[in-house]
Amino acid sequence: MAALLEESLAAGAAELGIGISDQDMALYRKYYQLLQEENSKYNLTSLEGEREVAVKHFLDSLCCAGVLDFNHKLVVDIGTGAGFPGVPLKINCRDMVLVLVDSVKKKVGFLDLLIEKLDLADVKTRWDRAETMGRAEEFRERADIVVSRAVASLNVLAEICLPLVKLGGWFLSLKGPGAKEELAGALRAVDLMGGGLERVENLILPIFNEERNLILIRKVAHTPEKYPRREGMPAKRPIV
Question: Domain locations in the chain?
Answer without folding.
Answer: 69-236
